[in-house]
Amino acid sequence: KKKKKKKKPDGESEETARKEKRPKKRQGSTSEGVDLEVATEEFGRASEINLDAPSVRSVQDDESMAPTASEASIDVSRVQWAREKEREMEERESQGAEKERLLLKRHDILVGKEQALDEKQCALVEKERLLLKQHEELVCEKEALDAKQRFFAEHVMRHDSKVLIQQVCSTAMNNALSRAASQTAPPPSRVPATKVPKLLVDVECQTDLNMQRMQVPTLNLELEDRARERAKVQGKLRLTRTEETEAAVRGHMEQDEERKRLVLEEIHNVDVARQILSDLDKARKEEKAMHERRMKEVVEQHEKEIREVKAQLEKAANDSNAEAAQYALSHRAHKRIVTEAEEKAQSLVHQAEARVRQLQSQEEEIKHRMSRNAAMEHEMHEWRERRTSLDMELKSRQQDLESRESGAHATEEALEKKARELKALMQELDCRERAMSKTSQTLAELLRKERELERHRIGNTASMGWNKALLQAQLKRMKSTYTPGNAPPPPPKLPGEKRQAATLDGSKYLAAETEGNEAIVETEKRVHRLANEFDRLVHNLTARSLERAEACSPMSQGGKSPKTPPPVFT
Prior knowledge:
86% of the residues lie in helices and 0% in strands. It contains 8 helices and no strands.
């Protein structure tokens, strides 16, 4: 019967025979078929096999060779399950790529923020440099102001000393002229009345001496007028100079206040920028911590996925090695499926290894970026330290500026004190000038009286000489005309007249001359006393003003300036 069935020419009968034969063979080994089905299902689940369309077509083409319909349905479900798994893997890969792209985008944003922070830091450094430059300019201007104040103080001292020296020189010149005028005339000598011929003087010499003495008060008056005009001009100059100095000091103070306000505004701007920088640093640190946390999570997730894939691959490899013999014994379709599964597993292993290498390269790149971020953080730390050092230097320079401002206030107070002392000295000088004017008026009055006395003395001397000459001529004529024995008779005596002997010694004229000479001597003594008193007062005033100027000078230490040389009177 079997041979007859094999010889049937129809293909349908052959197919039915085959279908009948196969279940008969499987009926004896049902447990073995069930084990194979379970093994194939587990192998599909573990290895996540992705069967391509050609393999599916080959399986469908070989359905004619498949033993049963249940096996074909199992193959189709397994293919669908593998495709779903492949879709899930592709979705996971796309999600991982999207996350990686987001991480790269956030990293680029962080890099941009760091660049912006660097630019702001550079701007802050530039602002600090400008502030330091402005501070240096302020210090230079302050030094220039101090130099101007010192020059003004020295100029005032020189001017006062020059004025006093001129006054002293003028008074000394006046005294020298008055003394020279008084010394040109010989002092009157007291001659006894018996020596009449020695009292006769030369009238021309006496007139020259009188003319010189008359010129002395005119010179004194001219010098006094010049000194008065000079004092007026100097008073005006002092007033204008003090006003100009006060205006200049006020202007410098206003400029210092304006610059101080600008410096305070810049400091406020720097504080605001520093606050903004601190906020940006905080935000950057938070963003960096979040980025590191997310990167760690992503790396851990990738490592977990890699471990899972490796475990699945190892399990699939083990299962495939254990079940390869059973598939080889079962059917050539199963062998083809096993070979395709092995090839797919190897391709998946290669893909996983490539993915692992890619993830390792990404991890290295992330580590490189993290090291770069650490280097940038170190550089930012160095910039912060430099900024703190610059802040400390700015604070120290600001304190130095405040100390210089306090020194400038002290110098201004010293200048105000010096101005008050100069004002008091001017008042004292005015009082002394008024006293000197009164003294000069007294001297002029005394000189006028001296001139009147001299004029009277000259007139008396001339008349006395003339009378003496007449008397001597008469005496000579009488001696030559009359003899001692033949004297002329005296003139007739009038009633009540008392005759006196004619005196030829000129005692009357001599008494008048001696009285005039004594008055002149007393006047000269009084003039000398007044001149000495005037010299003493001028010397005391000069010494006191110089001591006050040295004590009030701004560069003096304790009232004495060891570096200031004494004034040279040229």
